[in-house]
Structures are given as C-alpha cells and as structure tokens.
Design brief:
Number of domains: 1
Membrane topology: Multi-pass membrane protein
Distance between the termini: 59 Å
Number of strands: 0
Oligomer: single chain
Main location: membrane
Pfam families: TauE (PF01925)
Number of helices: 11
Subcellular location: Cell membrane; Membrane
Protein name: Probable membrane transporter protein
Mean pLDDT: 76
Structural class: mainly alpha
Largest sheet: none
C-alpha cells in the first residue's frame, strides 16, 4: 500500500507538469524508476502502460477545454506510433547495462534541452494560425515516438518545443494536441514492449500508482495550462532530470568518478538549476509587465 501511494504521488506530480507543459510525465517517471534499479526496458514498459490511462484522461480533458487541434493530432499520431513500436523493440533487445546508460544519456539530453529551451527562449506568437505541413509533422512524429519508447519519455520534450518553435500554434493548442496524440504513441509502444517482454516482470502496483495519480489530476492540469508559467515549469523539470540522470551516469560502471568530483558536479548542476529558475521567474514577470503595459495603452 505504501508503494502504491508513493507512486501515485509521483503520478500526480508528473501529470501536473505534463498536462500543463505538454511534456515530462514519461521522462520524470522513468528517471525515478531507473534510480531505484528498475530494468530500463521494464521501466519504459511500465511507464507506457500507466500512460495509456493518463494520456486518455489528459486528451479528453484538453478536448473539453478546447485545447486540441485535431488535424495536427491525426498527422503526427501514426508516424509517432510506428517510431514508438520500433524504439520499444530495439530497447528490449539491448543489453541491460548498455540500455541503462543509453536511456540516461537520452534523458540527460532531453532534460538539458528543456532547461535551456524554457529558460532562455520565450514564445513568438506572430505566426500563429499558419498551417503546419505534413513534411514537418510526419518526421517530427516518427522521431519523437522512437525517442519516447527508447528513453521512457520524449514525445512531449521533442514534440512540444518543436511545435512551439514553429510559432504557428497557440501554446495551449500545442500542449493539448501533443498530449492527446500521445495516447496512440503510448499504445503502440506498449504493444511493442508486451510483445517482446510478455507480462512477467511488470510490477502492476507501480503501474497502478502512476496511473491513479495521473488520472486524478489530468483535468486540473488541463485547466492549469492557462495559469502556470511554462518557462518556470520547463526550468524546474529540466533541472531535475539533468541532476538525477547525471547521478545515474556517474554511478555507472563505465567510468570511475571520485567522490569529490561527483559532489562538485552535483553542486555545479544545482547552481545552474537555481539560476535558471530565478531567471525564468524574472523573465516571466517582465513579459507579464510588458503585456500589461500594451493592454493599458490599447484600452486608453
């Protein structure tokens, strides 16, 4: 029961971030499972199974609040599913020690991208409304689906920033569309993992905890998409992922890292993380103040 509650709380936290930012449920949950020694393929499989429920609940909630562009969902979902199935099959057939390192490197890269992307860059709304072509959406879906299965997360960290960077969709539509299409990708990845692994070894208590926590807060996360500053969440989640996966790589058997060096690395990451959070908060306040000034001028 204690384990169920613990992973339900993890599911709550991960879904709050994922539903309001459009990413990081799988990355956050998989990072935790790797930290407690879970087999990489099994960790990704359990997260994907839990996400069958959370992505369905999230998609319904975002649709209810008008946050979904169904043309984008239809275009990226199928290539995403194909990429996810291939990625799941590849991960299952990879040696465990190598898979753990590969997954941690991918997670570290995704976390670093989140940290930099949402700390440094804002959102340019000048091109909102321009249609996105299939030549952009199809490859994006395939790559994001492949990484999602092999890293235990990646659909959101790759899909959301790419769509935001295009400047052609409102942030809430990006987040809602990515979250909704993720159900199809998760289904394909789950089928790939279960085909190769079977049901033995899956800890259903962990899956249930992640699922229950995520489903409970999915509607609230969809509402919060208009409230929580994306820059703040991106910096918070990105730094956490960088720190935890750096620890996994430092503790791996590939290279011996002296204790003092490891502590120095952790402190450096923590310092950069703290600066990123503070910078994101200041940038958010500056952006808000600028918008208020423009609104006052227009109303006057």
């Amino acid at each position: 029961m204690q384990k169920l509650v613990m992973f339900a709380l993890v599911g709550v936290a991960a879904q709050l971030v994922d539903g309001s930012l459009g990413m990081a449920y799988g990355v956050t949950s998989t990072t935790l499972l790797l930290m407690i020694g879970t087999n990489p393929a099994m960790a990704s499989a359990m997260v994907q199974l839990a996400q069958l429920g959370t992505t369905a609940a999230s998609g319904i909630s975002h649709h209810t609040f008008g946050n979904v562009d169904w043309r984008v969902v239809r275009t990226i979902a199928l290539p995403g599913a194909i990429g996810a199935f291939i990625g799941a099959t590849l991960l299952v057939n990879m040696p465990v020690d190598l898979a753990k390192v590969v997954m941690s490197v991918l997670l570290l890269a995704l976390g670093s991208y989140l940290l930099v992307r949402f700390t440094v860059k804002g959102f340019d709304s000048s091109r909102v409304g321009e249609p996105l072509g299939r030549t952009f959406l199809v490859p994006l879906g395939g790559v994001a689906g492949f990484v999602d299965a092999t890293a235990g997360g990646g659909w959101g960290p790759i899909g959301t920033p790419a769509l935001l960077a295009s400047g052609r969709m409102e942030p809430r539509k990006v987040i809602g569309s990515v979250s909704t299409s993720e159900f199809v990708v998760t289904l394909a990845a789950s089928i790939g993992f279960l085909t190769a692994l079977g049901f033995s070894g899956i800890q259903w208590q962990i899956v249930a905890g992640l699922l229950i926590g995520g489903v409970i807060v999915a509607p609230f996360a969809a509402m919060l998409v208009k409230v929580i500053p994306a820059r703040m969440l991106g910096s918070l989640v990105g730094g956490l992922i960088v720190l935890t996966n750096s620890r996994t790589l430092i503790n791996a058997d590939l290279v011996t890292v002296p204790g003092g060096v490891a502590i120095a690395i952790y402190l450096a990451i923590a310092a950069v993380w703290a600066y990123a959070i503070a910078h994101s908060w200041r940038a958010h306040r500056a952006d808000t103040a600028e918008l208020d000034e423009v609104r006052d001028v227009v109303e006057a």
